[in-house]
């Protein structure tokens, strides 16, 4: 039974890896389940058993890449630093991660540059928006605590600053992808985050 579960997990991972490669090379719309199955060396029926449809496979791929990144960065969410320092470390970590993880980088490139807003992918878009809203809410809570501790100016609106922080994440990483990774995201992130944090501090 254990070997059966392990084999199923291995098959699922092979399909996700094959799907990431096929989607990135050809785009979502042009990729068929047959091509993904062939790349993985597995039958098409295995895709339908593990995921259902092509849209379900795509959404699972994106979801699990973000979940894996969140697990790796989870220690940063556990506290131990001042609220503003926690925010700084989270921004730096999320902006550095695409350079550190090839699969996550490929997923970002796939979703940002190669996939349109197709109706069949709407459930995945909705799920991603919920995750973004949760991320902004977490940033806002850190900023509220930072304001109470006197780390940032009293007139700062936490929700607005949190949205700006998330915009920094999305904007800089998207620019990096559009520029064909011609600069170091990590190096630019360090300066961009410091500029953002300095703008929050009391004069």
Question: What's this, in brief?
Answer:
The chain has helices at 2-26, 33-40, 44-50, 54-73, 83-100, 102-113, 122-148, 158-178, 185-200. The protein is an all-alpha fold and 203 residues long. The longest helix is centred in the middle third of the chain and has 27 residues, at 122-148.
- Whole-number count of domains: 2
Straight-line distance between termini: 63 Å
Q: What percentage of the residues does DSSP assign to strands (E)?
A: under 5%
Order of helices and strands: HHHHHHHHH
The CATH architecture assignment of the largest domain turns out to be Orthogonal Bundle
Which segments are poorly predicted (pLDDT under 50) over 5 or more consecutive residues? none
CATH homologous superfamily designation of the largest domain: Tetracycline Repressor, domain 2
And the CATH topology of the largest domain?
Tetracycline Repressor, domain 2
- Overall geometry comes to elongated
Integer-rounded radius of gyration: 19 Å
Structural class: mainly alpha
Major beta sheet summary: none
For the record, the CATH class of the largest domain is Mainly Alpha
DSSP helix fraction: over 70%
Helix segment tally = 9
Description:
- The structure is a single chain.
- Helix 1 (2-26) crosses helix 2 (33-40) and helix 5 packs across helix 6 (102-113).
- Helix content is 76%, strand content 0%.
- The model has no long low-confidence stretch (mean pLDDT 94).
- By secondary structure, the chain is mostly helical.
- It has helices spanning 2-26, 33-40, 44-50, 54-73, 83-100, 102-113, 122-148, 158-178, 185-200.
